[in-house]
Write a structure and sequence with these properties.
The structure is a homodimer of 350-residue chains.
Chain A lengths: L5 E5 L7 H14 L4 E6 L1 H8 L3 H5 L1 E5 L10 H6 L5 H10 L5 E4 L3 H12 L9 E7 L4 E5 L9 H19 L5 E5 L10 H12 L5 E6 L11 E3 L2 H26 L3 H9 L1 H11 L7 E4 L4 E4 L6 H16 L2 H25 L1
Parallel strand pairs in A: 1-2, 1-4, 2-3, 4-11, 6-9, 7-8, 7-9
Antiparallel strand pairs in A: 5-6, 5-10, 10-11
Helix pairs in contact in A: 1-2, 1-12, 5-6, 7-8, 7-13
């Protein structure tokens, strides 16, 4: 790619547009001074925000566009009239090699549809997936698919494993990331056929990852593995359920601390500890769903996030841009598909 | 049923056998003095425990058996040699009308297989489901299926809705429980075909429940509805993920409170509040998976639970025994299946 570490930002996406996109990029630039940016959207509003952060302004190029994809627009509609919108141009910048990674807080469905159309799936990839960063007691892990597709064949689950491993290599700097398939633990039902077949392939094939077999939902947050693979329906439900449980416990905790003045005093003294906890549980820290499996990377920030949350998505984009993720993943996928085909031929003729 | 409010207990199930089963039953009896029990298992060990709790001993009949299903036995194996085991006899007591509900902390797969064989599915029910009690910020809700089956047709999901509503009626004492289907929120993928078809049926059919449409995973713990319906693979993953997240946050909290002596002092003062929180989050409070859809109710306690946890499962059994759940559910299911058939005929001939 011609300009390494350049991030394309859809400045008009999300609930707050350039206000959050520019402030978020500025925070991330403090942490990673090597980055530069291309911002797509309304020049006047972007410039107004950039004036507040001259350091960022120096490293930013603005590409003006009047048109924007609305947050509630249907993906099909966005695709039809999407050309030239800030979201479209942001993704196109990656396709043209003008940026390494695209980030938007805009319409998820439109982002997925446009990314697929513009960046195209990698060779041999049937379905791209959305990967989430999941906080664990140890540090973080990657969970995919969290909702790009419903259902997954054994082949698709195996591809997700390689895609997740490539991302873990980029983010966690381990050469052979540990990978597990999410499954259910009831003894009588031993998992879906697709999951079992993927398990057999991942176990028996020589791959650039450390396959650890099945895990259950309660192991995700324990940090048992670097990458957790699951089809998108269950993956999305797991992600949302974990978010809901965290919120629920925060509410319990707040109510519990309000119940007497002694508790209130205690909570005040322990406020340092509570701050650490709050920080640990802050959903803004792991904001950013990564769209994987295309010839280029697009990251979706939460639409309602603030500058800190958007900065996390930009941090993530930077880490991904640092690695040669796509090129390496392309090699891994090709080798894997080759082995699968060889096994199939051997089985057919053997 | 001949002896109302009689609970059949597998005294040999779980990691601790009669020690936990008897002590748990004694705690539950304090709360519900109307209950009586039939305990199945080794007479000498049961009697040794019952000596400690004379009030329970008065209301308990022991049925001796030497044979036990091992915790790690395969369901198929347990079925073959299962006749006469404490688990088998416990379930059979319900089938014979000698007890209202069966409770065991034993082998889940064997419990499911034996319950299906002995109690048989209700008329029109293709697949029984496991329902879990899920703590919410408001109180509790019921989630099913949490792992009896993998996948579910629209018809099965609709049946789950009626089964869950019957249980909510028994436990929460509401005549028209609120019910929702668990779905994913990504805009481009609008849910599985089965979930959409079940949605259409539940929305358009006159049913003894208040159908509220789709919810996402983060709404379960908010107590948005009384009953959450989902197929067993995603349901099991959601349940385990929520448990794991709760444990993860407890670990964060403990670590955060240990980080300075001021935090430690604060935590000490706030210990009343922390106790309330701990109690709220105590998994023993909602111990007990209910096997629904058979001509009789079997409840699975967690195998590793203590007396308090087992008492929750017995409490649950008592509440279910109090209601005429099965009879009412049979009527509801018949009416629903009749309406579905009528609609199908109308569509076919219309």
């Amino acid at each position: 790619m011609s300009q390494p570490r350049t991030i394309a930002l859809d400045a008009m996406g999300g609930d707050f547009g350039p206000v959050v996109a520019v402030a978020g990029a500025a925070i991330s630039l403090e942490r990673h001074p090597g980055m530069s940016f291309v911002l797509f959207g309304d020049r006047a509003s972007i410039e107004a925000e950039l004036e507040k952060v001259p350091k960022l302004a120096e490293r930013t190029r603005i590409v003006h566009t009047d048109t924007v994809v609305a947050m509630d627009e249907k993906p099909s509609q966005a695709l039809r009239r999407g050309k030239g919108t800030s979201l479209w141009l942001t993704i196109e910048a990656v396709q043209k090699g003008e940026a390494d990674v695209a980030v938007s807080a805009g319409n998820t469905g439109a982002l997925m549809a446009m990314s697929k159309l513009i960046l195209r799936p990698m060779a041999g990839i049937e379905r791209p997936a959305i990967a989430a960063i999941w906080p664990t007691v140890k540090s973080e892990c990657i969970v995919l698919d969290v909702g790009a597709n419903i259902g997954a064949t054994a082949r698709q689950l195996s591809d997700y494993a390689l895609m997740g491993a490539a991302m873990a290599r980029a983010l966690f700097h381990v050469e052979r990331p540990t990978v597990a398939l999410l499954n259910v633990g009831v003894e009588e039902v031993k998992g879906v056929e697709e999951v079992r077949q993927a398990h057999a392939w991942l176990k028996s094939t020589e791959l650039p990852l450390d396959y650890r077999g099945f895990i259950e939902g309660d192991q995700i947050g324990q940090g048992t593995v670097d990458v957790v693979v699951v089809e998108g329906f269950a993956g999305n439900i797991a992600l949302k359920t974990a978010e809901g449980t965290a919120r629920q416990i925060s509410e319990y905790l707040r109510a519990a601390m309000r119940r007497s003045w002694v508790s209130q005093l205690g909570a005040l003294l322990a406020s340092g500890g509570f701050r650490v906890l709050k920080n640990k549980m802050d959903p803004r820290r792991s904001n950013g769903g990564t769209f994987l499996g295309l010839n280029g990377i697009a990251i979706k920030s939460h639409g309602g996030t603030d500058a800190l949350g958007f900065a996390s998505a930009v941090d993530l984009a930077y880490e991904m841009a640092q690695s040669r993720l796509i090129a390496r993943l392309a090699e891994d996928l090709e080798a894997f598909h080759h082995k699968l085909a060889a096994t199939a031929t051997a089985t057919a003729t053997g």
